[in-house]
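Hi R.,

Here's the chain you asked about this morning:
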Amino acid sequence: MGLVIQYVFVLVLLIIFSIKDIQTRTVPWRWVMASVLGTILIRCFYSPEPWWHYLLTGLCILLGLLMISISLKDQLGGGDIQLFGWLGLSLGFYSALFVLIGTLLLTIVYGLIRKRTFPVVPFMLISFMTLLIMEWKVGAL
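And the predicted structure, written out as tokens:
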């Protein structure tokens, strides 16, 4: 039941973030922080892995993408980096890695077709929904 609550929480917020990202090309910092607090609250009641596992995953993704963004001259926005860190905190290592790789692959393909900047959060949503479908098919949900 706790996993379903966490996934519904992430799904609803990614839908909201996607709409905002498409409309304004921004991800509000306060919204991300509220999402982090919500995730911490959920993790207080449901955490199949040790709490530090989620924290370490979120921090590693956040810092890793920050270093990549700096080296690529800010091709990835700060809000996108924060959201990936939040996903690491919310999902844990393997699920967050799946969403990260799926998002990167989708954005590469879309970028090759469109050849201009575009919002990244909708691709996070698509990758997360793919994760949900895969976990539902194998019976993890």
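The mean pLDDT is 90.

Let me know if you need anything else.
M.
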